[in-house]
Amino acid sequence: MKEFLARKDIVISWQRYGIDALGAMAQGLFCSLLIGTILNTIGSQFGIDFLTEPILYLGKGDGQVGYTIGGVASLMVGPAMAVAIGNALKAPPMVLFSLITVGFATNALGGAGGPFAVLVTACVAAEFGKAVSKETKVDILVTPIVTILVGVGLAMVVAAPIGTFAQWVGSIIMWATEQRPFIMGILVSVIVGIALTLPISSAAICAGLGLTGLAGGAAVAGCCANMIGFAVLSFKENGVGGLISQGVGTSMLQMPNIVRNPKVWIPAIVTSAITGPIATCIFKLQMNGAPVNSGMGTCGFCGQIGVWTGWVNDVASGAKAAITGWDWFGLIMISFILPAVICPLIGMVCRRLGWIKAGDLKLD
Which of 225, 265, 305, 329 is deepest in the core (most CB within 10 A)? Predict the structure, then answer.
């Protein structure tokens, strides 16, 4: 068996699944959902018809849905993550192509827990596909059939429970929203920030919970603390590319490093615990735009745009007299300035304590 696994390059290890595959999955997420979100944001904010007009429609009649270029990119998040994982596991072409189906089905079945469900099913399906690859004379049939059946079959078993776990995280967030503003600010900011970086969908959780108001503002603070915090904290290791990919993309790119050394997460988590109550108690930051934006942070600046659209709607309805300079100051401080200052300072302490060492935050 050891000889067979070695010949098939099937390495059952934490490094292979918890670091290599997880890091690749984050890249797949970035190249689909997050890039799609950024393209949609650019199109809508700058009035670019090429990016805002649907290029295709799915469904019939009243159920027909139009998809922009960004929408199509976001729709392909499951396949993108699965193929990225398969590539990290060094899957042969037939296995890699078959993972497209596995990723799409799993992400759809997993709901808010879709990304983590894809990680599980894609890893298992890829290894089974590699095991049977080129072992028969009808490889063109056997390999894709085994890969798809194993992957989709496993998704039918594990995707829903993983989605339930994501809903459980959502229930904790809802409990946190019922606390006093100071405590709520800490809890919501920390929990949503953690959810953003974990391989689950913080945006889907916030959308499902309808997270708006002060709680939505705290959620934005937590997301920004992780995204901007990690981007600036790791600037020495990752440069401008890392600053942009994490600051405007996703802090999930740091998950492999967090798995290697969980202490690298301390600065971002502590930062979210600080900026959350500042958002709720000092700046009174509220997310009255679309709830999904509460879990987006600075990804395509969706969190900030959501807060701004909420202001516009409140002014139009008479709920808010005007958008003030204090509003803008608070949004900029919570979203960018405070995370960029506090997280590196805490990181400096962690480095001096030996908790974070050179190279610990390096992105692959």
Answer: 225
Q: What is the CA radius of gyration of the chain?
A: 21
| pLDDT tens-digit readout, 211-268 | 888 999 999 999 999 999 999 999 999 999 999 999 998 999 999 999 999 999 999 9
Asked whether residue 364 is assigned to any structural domain, the reply reads no
**240 and 124 in one domain?**
no
In a domain, 173, yes or no: no
pLDDT band at 210 (very low <50, low <70, confident <90, very high): confident
Residue 7's CB is within 10 A of a number of other CB atoms, namely: 9
pLDDT-based confidence at residue 350 (cuts at 50, 70, 90):
very high
- Domain containing 247: what range? 179-352
Decide if 208 is inside a domain.
yes
Q: Per-residue pLDDT tens for 255-272?
A: 999 999 999 999 999 999
Instruction: Report the number of distinct structural domains present in the chain.
Output: 2
| Residue 292 and residue 146 share a domain | no
> Would you state the pLDDT for residue 291?
84
Q: Are residues 154 and 190 in the same domain?
A: no
Residue 259 pairs in a beta bridge with none
The string of pLDDT tens digits covering residues 130-152 is 999 999 999 999 999 999 999 99
Beta bridge partners of 56: 67
Contact 64, 98 (CB under 8 A): no
